[in-house]
Amino acid sequence: MAVNRCAALRSDKRLTYEQDDFKVDIVMDASSFPSIFSELDRHLIGEGQHHRLYEKLGAQIVEREGSKRVHFSVWAPNARQVQIVGDFNGWDGRSITAQPVDDLGIWEFQVDAAKTGDRYKFRVQDSNGLWCDKADPMGFAAELPPLTASVVTDLNGYQWQDQDWMSRRRERDPLKSPMNVYEVHLGSWQKGKGRKNGWLDYPYLARRLSDYCHRMNFTHVELMPVSEHPYTGSWGYQTVGYFAPTARHGSPEDFMYFVNYLHQQGIGVIIDWVPAHFPKDRHGLARFDGTALYEHEDSRRGEHPDWGTLIFNYGRNEVRNFLVSNALFWLDRYHIDGLRVDAVASMLYLDYSRGHDDWLPNEHGGRENLEAIQFLREANQAISDYCPGVITIAEESTAWPGVSRPVADGGLGFDCKWNMGWMNDTLTYMNREPIHRSHHQNDLSFSLIYAFTENFVLPLSHDEVVHGKGSLIAQMPGDLWQKFANLRLLYSYMWMHPGKNLLFMGNELAQWKEWNHDDGPQWELLDFKSHRGIQQIVADLNLLVNENPALHELDFRSEGFQWIDCMNAEDSTLVFLRKSDSGDPPILVCCNFTPVVRYDYRVGVPMSGFWRERFNSDSEIYGGSNVGNFPGATTLGEPHHGQPDCISVVMPPLAVTVFRWEEASTES
User: Which of 40, 152, 391, 556 minimizes the number of CB atoms within 10 Å of its CB?
Assistant: First the structure.
C-alpha cells in the first residue's frame, strides 16, 4: 500500500511531495509563480470576449526558465476551494492548492512535475464543503470512456501539410461551389476486428474514408460529434469534453492527421457541434462549482425535457465566451472547414417541447430566447471574421427568419440551413403509392416557393433512418424493382433541386436495416447488382453536380432556377431548368414520378439546338429498364411551355433524365 507523506511548506512556497519511490517539488499557490493571464487577458475574460480562451484555461504547456512546465487553470467562481489532482501527485489533492485569480473566479496552478500524457482532474469543494472531481472543461484530451480523466496534451507539435488547401479555402466562396456531403458516424462507418469495441483509429479511417469519398465524388465529410462523450449511445450529441476529440479513435494528434490527410486529398471536413445542451454526468459541466454555473438554476430554463440534458445559460458572458472560443478552437487547432450546429430550434425557443406552464418567457413576455440569439450571432460573426472560407450550417426546423442571413442584416449569421421542410414533404410524397401522387403535386412544387429565402442544404441524414422510421429503401412503395427505382428517383430529384446535398452513410448502399450505431452500414449488400446500382448513381450524381456550374453556382439565387412545367399533376411530372452565372450551358431536368413511360413528351426549352442526355436514372447500369433518349434530342422549331422552342423526349418510369444544351445540332 502506497504511503503518502507531505512535508511542511518551505519558505520558497514550494511543497515537497513524496509517494513510494518518487519525490517532487510542487508550487503551492498562485503568488509563487507568474500568472499566465496578462492584463489584456483579464480584461477580455471579464468582458466575455476572449476568443482564444483555449490558449489560457485548461492545461497549458509553457516555457519558463528554459524548461517546459504545465500551467493549469479553471473557472469555478463559487467554489470554496479547488485542487489539482493527477498522475503527478498520486491523486492526492492535499498536495497542491490554488487561490482565485483576481475577481474572475479563475483558479490557477503551476505543476513542475506534470508532463504530457499525465491524467488529471480538478477537485472542487462547493460552498457546503462537499468535494467533487471534475474533468477539465477546456481539456484537450480525455481518457477512453468509461474512464473520465482529462489528459495533459501539447497541441503545438503536429506538422500540418495542408497549406495549399487552407490557402484555397480562404479564397473560395463555399456558397457558389459544389458541396456534396457524406455524413458519417466514425464509430460505426466501418468496424475493425481485434480492436476494442471495433473502433478504428483516426489515421486508418482517414485513408479509407478519403478513398471512398474520391470514388463516390463527395466533396465533404460531415462527422457526427467527435468531441468526447461518455455515452456511446448518444452518438456524440451529449458532449462532456468540448475541446477533446474522442479517445475512441486515438489521440488529438491522430485526429489532426485525419483532417490533414483528407485536406491533402481535396476533401473538406465538417463536424457537428453541440452548443445547445450538455449531459448531467457528475464529472462534467453540470453544477461544476456546486452551483448552476454553465446551466440555469431553474429547470424551466435549464433542462431539456426530451433529452434529460442541461441547457447552457447564454446570458452569462463567461458561458458564451466558453462556447464561442470552443467553435474557434476546432477551426484553428484542427483546421475544420465547417460546423453544423445541432438543435438550433431548441436554442431559439424558450417553450421548445414544453408544456404551457413549463417555461419562462423572456423579459418582453415572448418565447424567443434572446440570450441564445445573441450567442449564435456572436459565434457566427467571430467565425466569419477569423476564419474566411469556413461554413456554418444550422439544423433549424422552424420558419425562424434570416437563419442564413448576415448578422448585419438582422439574421443569425449562419451560411446555410438544413431544409427540413423539403425533406419532410419530399419523403411524404415519395412514401405514397405512385397512383396517389397526382393528388399531392404541391408536396414537390411547394419547396420552390421558399427555396431562396435561406441558403438551404437538402438533408437525408441519420435522423431519417433511426427510431423506427426504417431505412430509405424500406420506406419506398411498390415491388422490389419499384422500390429501387423510387430510391434512384428520390436521389436524382434531390441532387437536381437547388441547394447543397447531404446523405447519411449507408443510404448510398440502399441498406434494408435502419441505422444502428453498434452495427453500421450493410456493406455486404454490394454483392448484389441492385445495391451496387444505387451506390453508382450517387457517385454519378455527385460528379454531375461537381462538373456542371449550373448545378451549384446559383443554388441560393432565384436566377439559377426556372420552372418549365410544374402543373402536370395528372402525369406526376416536373420539368425545370438549372442555370449558372458563368455562361455555362443550362441543365434541363425531367422527372417522372410514376411507373408509366411517357413517350413523345413535349418539353419547352429556351434555346434551339441539340440537348444531350447527360444522365438517366433508369439506365441499366443503375438497375433500371434502360428507357431513354440517347444521345439526346434536337429542338423541333416549335414554341411550347412558354419557351421559344421544344424537344420531344421519352420520360422513363420512376426516373429523372437530365439534358445539357449544345449549340451544334448533332446527334453524334
Answer: 40
Angle between helix 202-216 and helix 529-547 axes, rounded to 10 deg: 80
Q: How far is CA 248 from CA 148, 194, 227, 512, in A?
A: 12, 14, 10, 28
Domains 4-151 and 179-209+221-418 share a fold: no
The C-alpha atoms of residue 643 and residue 660 are separated, in whole angstroms, by: 16
- Helix (H/G/I), strand (E/B), else coil: 260: helix
According to DSSP, the β-strands at 119-125 and 150-151 are: antiparallel
Task: Give the Cα separation of 380 and 339 in Å (integer).
Answer: 10
CATH number for 179-209+221-418 (one of 1.10.3720.10, 3.20.20.80, 3.80.30.20, 3.30.830.10): it is: 3.20.20.80
Question: Cα separation of 612 and 664, whole Å?
Answer: 10
Greater confidence (100 vs 70) lies with 70
- Give domain 4-151's CATH number out of 3.30.70.20, 2.60.40.10, 2.40.10.10, 2.40.50.140: 2.60.40.10
Residue of 395, 396, 553, 618 marked active site: 395
Cell of 607: 434555346
Residue 282 DSSP one-character state: T
Residue 342 among the catalytic residues:
yes
Domain boundaries, the chain: 4-151, 179-209+221-418, 558-662
- E strand residue ranges, 318-438: 338-341, 391-394, 416-418
Residues 6 or more apart whose CB falls under 8 angstroms from that of 192 comprise 198, 199, 200, 204
Tell me the per-residue pLDDT of 502-556, one tens digit each, with 9 for 90 and over: 999 999 999 999 999 998 899 999 999 999 999 999 999 999 999 999 999 999 9
Residue 620 cell numbers, joined: 441499366
Provide the whole-model pTM.
0.93
CA atoms lying within 13 Å on the CB side of residue 207: 5
Among residues 152, 322, 319, the alpha carbon closest in space to that of 242 is found at 322
Question: Do the beta carbons of residue 255 and residue 321 sit within 8 Å?
Answer: no
Distances 102 to 41, 106, 111, 514, 657 between C-alpha atoms, Å: 12, 8, 20, 54, 68
The grid cell for 430 is 415519395
Candidates 183, 272, 337, 342; catalytic one: 342
